[in-house]
């Protein structure tokens, strides 16, 4: 009889443990489902034909080669607000009969459609965009930024100081003019959680420019995702850690690459290179979206 009672006690203990495990699992499920649903819309901000690909490596790896780049911009819809990430090529290119080639012959650029026409595809106007943020302020990422004067520009302080400097105004007036009328500005320092819940996070990744940043998203169905800005322009540069000759700081870029890869591994995030045509084609285009 004693042996029978002992056996019942052991079974009861294990049953209690199993019950606790089931309760813990249920709590995990509840926590996961409580994450807000966000939507990622991908748009076409133009095309960049790089005629001198050697500009994208510190060595001669790409000598004599050319490559076509995509130039995407994105809208992230969150219950607490709407963020536009990057701003494509200059809208002055829309309607031009021929693509434009830079005087040095390095780039040939074109853009088919304006931001306002593309926002109509998802039932939005400029007034719907609460926040604008740019991975950085090069010409192919700020093209329609000036159209969002009512949005709050979330910008790394180091990037703001650089792009508004006297030197930039004198040597790169087109870039400065693209952002000079943005008056609602919030300067940030380092990583920044846009909505405070971990679903939309800027990761500070300087080197390409002083305040370059990448974007981390936690999508409820698709999972963790990283938009790499211009940390890498195409897959070979990521694989071999090659850095363009025009980067602001090579050592900073290498450090940012280390951070980025460690963070991507930690989060098990899918990485999308914003200038990669292959990666651009993998993402559904507006009005479709990832969530």
- From the alpha carbons, calculate the radius of gyration and give it in angstroms: 23 Å
Q: Within the CATH hierarchy, at the fold level, what is the topology? A: Metallo-beta-lactamase, Chain A
Total number of domains: 1
Mean pLDDT: 90
Biggest sheet details: 8 strands, mixed
Cα separation of the termini: 59 Å
Strand content bin: 15-25%
Sequence of strands across the biggest β-sheet? 4-5-1-2-3-6-7-8
Order of SSEs: HEEEEEHEEHHHEEEEEHHEH
CATH architecture annotation name: 4-Layer Sandwich
- CATH homology group: Ribonuclease Z/Hydroxyacylglutathione hydrolase-like
Low-confidence stretches: 1-32
Distinct helical segment count = 8
Q: Which of globular, elongated, flat, extended, rod-shaped describes the shape?
A: globular
Task: Please provide a written account of the structure.
With 291 residues, the chain is α/β, with parallel strands linked by helices. It has one domain: Metallo-beta-lactamase, Chain A, CATH 3.60.15.10. It is 30% helix and 24% strand. It contains eight helices and 13 strands. It has helices at residues 2-33, 115-120, 157-163, 166-171, 173-179, 235-240, 250-267, 277-282; strands spanning 39-50, 67-78, 81-85, 100-101, 107-110, 131-133, 152-156, 185-188, 192-193, 200-204, 213-219, 223-227, 270-272. The strands form two sheets. Strands 4-5-1-2-3-6-7-8 form an eight-stranded mixed β-sheet.
């Amino acid at each position: 009889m004693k042996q029978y009672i002992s056996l019942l006690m052991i079974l009861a203990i294990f049953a209690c443990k199993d019950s606790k495990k089931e309760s813990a699992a249920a709590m995990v499920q509840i926590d996961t489902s409580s994450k807000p649903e966000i939507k990622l819309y991908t748009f076409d901000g133009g095309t960049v034909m790089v005629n001198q690909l050697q500009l994208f490596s510190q060595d001669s790896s790409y000598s004599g080669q050319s490559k076509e780049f995509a130039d995407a911009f994105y809208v992230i819809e969150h219950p607490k607000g709407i963020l536009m990430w990057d701003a494509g090529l200059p809208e002055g290119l829309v309607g031009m009969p021929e693509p434009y080639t830079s005087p040095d012959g390095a780039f040939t650029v074109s853009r088919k459609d304006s931001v306002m026409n593309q926002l109509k595809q998802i039932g939005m106007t400029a007034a719907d965009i609460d926040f604008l943020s740019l991975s950085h302020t090069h010409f192919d990422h700020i093209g329609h930024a000036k159209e969002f004067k009512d949005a709050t520009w979330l910008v790394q302080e180091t990037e703001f100081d650089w792009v508004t400097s006297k030197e930039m105004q004198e040597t790169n007036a087109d870039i400065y003019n693209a952002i000079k009328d943005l008056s609602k500005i919030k300067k940030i320092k380092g990583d920044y959680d846009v909505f405070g819940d971990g679903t939309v996070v800027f990761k500070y990744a300087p080197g390409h420019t002083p305040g370059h940043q990448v974007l981390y998203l936690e999508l409820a169905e698709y999972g963790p995702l990283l938009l790499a800005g211009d940390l890498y322009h195409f897959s070979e540069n990521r694989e071999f850690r090659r850095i363009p000759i025009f980067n602001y700081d090579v050592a900073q870029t290498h450090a940012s690459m280390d951070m980025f890869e460690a963070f991507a591994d930690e989060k098990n995030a899918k990485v999308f290179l914003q200038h990669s045509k292959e990666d651009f084609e993998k993402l559904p285009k507006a009005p479709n979206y990832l969530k």
